[in-house]
Design brief:
Length: 298
Amino acid sequence: MMAGPSYSDLPKPKKPHRLDKDTRHEDGIVRFRDRETNIKRDIRRAKLLEDTSQLTIWEAERARDLQERLQRANETGIPAETLASAVYHREARMPILSSWWKLIEEHQDQPQGFVTLRPQGMLYRADDLFSVRPADLLKRVQNDFNRQGITAAPGFGFFGLDADFDANRYGGVIDFHVHGIVVGEKIKAIDNLKKMRKYDNARLDPLEQGLPISPRIQVKKPLFNLPDPITYCLESWVPHRPTRIVEEGSRKRSTTKKEIPSPFKQRWLIWMDMWSIVDFILLSNLRPTKAGFQLIHP
């Protein structure tokens, strides 16, 4: 457990880094999802959780408990304290993302890049979801950073665990991956991950057979249209991106993001209810304080 200040100590968002009111888009349109949209999403989730017909006894019990909490929140207007609530997830993210945004703009004189990491070993069958601990997945990435000199490199980074879902492969497959923003010399150091076999582009996992080869390490720079790249590091919505077989066993992934179908969606909500926002975050040479994120030496 982290000593001293924690994420709960981060300051409330202030102008000009309020996700729901400020933007660097030229058109001035704020893209961050508003509270009313998330309230409607929670209403749909509570309704969805009423259907436990395809769940196990344990899952059904958890679903009913979660449904009651979401329903009560919908009626009272007081968010249920669970990441399964879109409203609560939004509120939990805002101080973190706002502080990241402020930090990024304070270091505009340094190289900055948006990073996506898809190491092997982070795909799971839907049936195995409840055996997955998000903090353990991020710990693996942290260990990779330590081994390859990324942690020791000057600069800083922050990362969030994300996922895509595909109901059309092996009874449902969850593709966990990491999005983050890296600043300073750490951007070049990220390339060191290519020395590790788990970052080879080859499709070796049976759960990804048939998918086209794509880079497991992607770095896009510079950053633009803030805060979009920052909010993308810590998303509240996991999409369904189904694949289909096109020829000789090869698969093509849908470019359209959809809602996860039942009963997978119920199970995903139950799983999210098990964790806190901290479990989905990895910091590199940063720590949260009452004044925002502070740079620390490796």
